[in-house]
């Protein structure tokens, strides 16, 4: 049986021991990976980033510091906005740049020591000298790759929901940042910051670019809401509330412990199906961070194209598998176990991988193509 080739060469960060990092630092403490990407050439410049920030479907922000205050402007921006910015103390940030620029997406492979479905997106910032987004903490893990220029990062205290914030609801900045460590980053240096760890990065040169490889960590509140909707849509449980064994009421309006336990038991039973939970979680964790572009070939054209054109994972696509289930961009596909595993780690399929009838089912490849998870080399011609 022919299988898709594993994704592009397994890339390793330099000066980095993934097993030691996961055992000691991951989700615990910041870690500097000095020259993790030696001789790094930044895959994007300020002009590219400004171009993306003018696009309708792309999430972008400008943060400008004036004295002790930070101001937020949300994109998309008119082209001439960039000409009227001050010479210093501003930052342009663009989310999910890996969904638009292949060379930025390519950086994701350096983080293959973590599950693919944990990756959220790569945000890129361009910072004028002195620019920064203010002292803050994030709710998720992030690797800050210095793309170009120099940036001084200060690491502060551990934060949580009780941490005092400044009176600026748009920007969740800290009222009292206590610097505990400091690192000056140059191109190819990487700084890992765990969730809840205060940080503050100030550009010390022109053309300072930071690429933030961010990981997804849905809030339990959001997971509950999503699970409720998923379970409701599957209508797995026709059960309704029924009374436990009851006695005649003495307090007419009272909700008894037994009634509450009954409601709890019914709800637990409704979500206590491991298969359903797996389907829900796989779909939740593979939602895209940026919109997909559905393929335009019809089924016949697509099948013909498979004979002599490569297919690729589309930029921004998100994949995972569990057993025989493949999850892609928030959808589930049932495959054989080997195929689900192989497809969930692929980047590119050559015609030789897919023409033999006992390889990948063409109908599933076509669905993936139609939904924009796959693209075909023919589309680019
Ligand atoms: C930035 O790139 O300017 C901000 C990144 C961060 O602090 O998370
Ligand atoms: Co941050």
Write a structural description:
An eight-stranded antiparallel beta sheet has the order 1-9-6-11-5-4-2-3, with helices on one face. Strands 8-7-10 form a three-stranded antiparallel beta sheet, with no helix packed on it. A three-stranded antiparallel beta sheet has the order 16-12-17. The protein is built from ten helices and 17 strands. Helix 4 packs across helix 6. The protein is globular and about 75 Å long. The N terminus is likely disordered. The longest helix is centred in the middle third of the chain and has 15 residues. By secondary structure, it is of the alpha+beta class. Bound molecules: succinic acid (SIN) and cobalt (II) ion. The site of succinic acid has 11 residues, from strand 4, strand 5, strand 10 and strand 11. The site of cobalt (II) ion (CO) has 3 residues, from loops.
The overall pLDDT average reads: 92
Quote the distance from N terminus to C terminus.
Answer: 30 Å
How many beta-strand elements? 17
Low-confidence stretches: 1-8
What is the helix tally?
10
- Assign an overall shape: globular
- Secondary-structure element pattern, one letter each: HEHEEEHEEEEEEEHHHHEEEEHEHHE
The side-by-side strand order for the widest beta sheet comes to 1-9-6-11-5-4-2-3
Structural class: alpha+beta
Helix content: 10-25%
Describe the structure using short key phrases:
binds cobalt (II) ion; single chain; 10 helices; alpha+beta; about 375 residues; globular; binds succinic acid; three-stranded antiparallel sheet
